[in-house]
Design goal:
This protein has 194 residues and is mainly α. 73% of the residues lie in helices and 0% in strands. The protein has helices at 2-18, 37-57, 60-72, 89-96, 104-136, 140-143, 146-184, 188-193.
Length: 194
Amino acid sequence: MKKNLLLYGVFLCALSMSSCSGGSKSSHAMDNSSMSVENANEVMKYYETSLKVLKGLVDEDEIRAVLGYLDQKISVDSLPVMSQPVVPVQDTVFVSNPGNYFSENDRQNLKENYGRLFRSISAFYENYKTYRLYMQDQSYKKDNNALADKIRKEELLLSIALSEYKQVIFDILTPMVEWAKTALTPIEGNVKGK
């Protein structure tokens, strides 16, 4: 039980860290004058779509609830059916293929982290489904909860991975969004002089 509480504490710590937008620098820093308004608009569009996808797919409250259900070892009648959240396909395709307004390195990192995030969220909900079936069939009596324990550990690791992928995505996007906002904001001196 102490071990489960410790692992759950690690998860909560990872979740709280993922809620920050991060502050690391992008591998491709641009000066304010080098980002065109068109590129800045594309960066902002990508960022807003990313926020929508991440909020839709990685619901921290639901992930905590699933981990809580697994930790309680309660009967299947008490386990709610939870399906993987669905976001529009065009949004997932869009964030999986960042445009040339990002550096090659940033594009590659975004593709990789979104791919990992999508696979991890699918695995998370698939494991939960397996756990429910396992409890429903009362297979835990045959193997002394071996599969249940394995699924609990996997789910915790997947939840931490989801937080990390989300954080890396924000770390990549944050500097670019700052540059884009600056490029889209008119210079105060020009506005006052008119």
